Amino acid sequence: MEEIEFTDMLLRMGLSLILGGIIGFERERDSQPAGLRTHMILVVGACLAMMLSLNIAYEGGGDPARLAAQVVSGIGFLGAGAILRSGFNVKGLTTATTLWTMAIVGLAVGMGYYAVAAITTLVLMIVLSVLDIIEKRFVRINVIRNITIEVHDHKGIVRDVRKTMARIADQVITFSIQKSIKSKSLRLEIVARFNRSDKIENMVEQISEIEGVKAFKIE
Known about the structure:
The protein contains seven helices and six strands; from the N terminus they run αααββααβαββαβ. It starts with 5 loop residues before the first helix and ends with a strand. The chain is α+β, with helices and mostly antiparallel strands. The chain is elongated, with a radius of gyration of 25 Å. The chain folds into two domains: 6-139, no CATH class; 142-218, ACT domain (Alpha-Beta Plaits, 2-Layer Sandwich), CATH 3.30.70.
């Protein structure tokens, strides 16, 4: 094992920036919580940790993987921050996995495995871009939406809302009701599964046609 020279360190950190930027740009374009800057900083940090591990082991002995191993476990906390839950929908799992994988790519660059790191980044780009198109078109044909409707409390209003939701949704998963005695209004919270091809404009029009609807929100 040889000590990593300063110029070689700069080369590896530069490559880390590029590889992290490639995946970060894709995540940024998809409006994910961890985007371009996060991925670039992450990969450079992982690369630096790997190089420090090697140089510390060269100078003072010991296991060169000790510092790098902490990167792998520590990324779990960062990835957890990228996961967002909204009702039945969970977003950010893919971004969390890219953060973890790109940390490993940074370690690989720090170790000097340039080709493996570049190929791994290319594979990630294929998975994120090409397979995402295939999933949206052939696999994930349904989407779960949270709908909140505020209506005037009058006879038959709940039945009218149920009929409308049964007509426009593939499946109504939950239907809850909150009643305000003072304002004589109802708050209906609905979780339903829709076909991904269904336009949200059509939902807005059909819910608006229900007599007594004061306001509603579709997520």
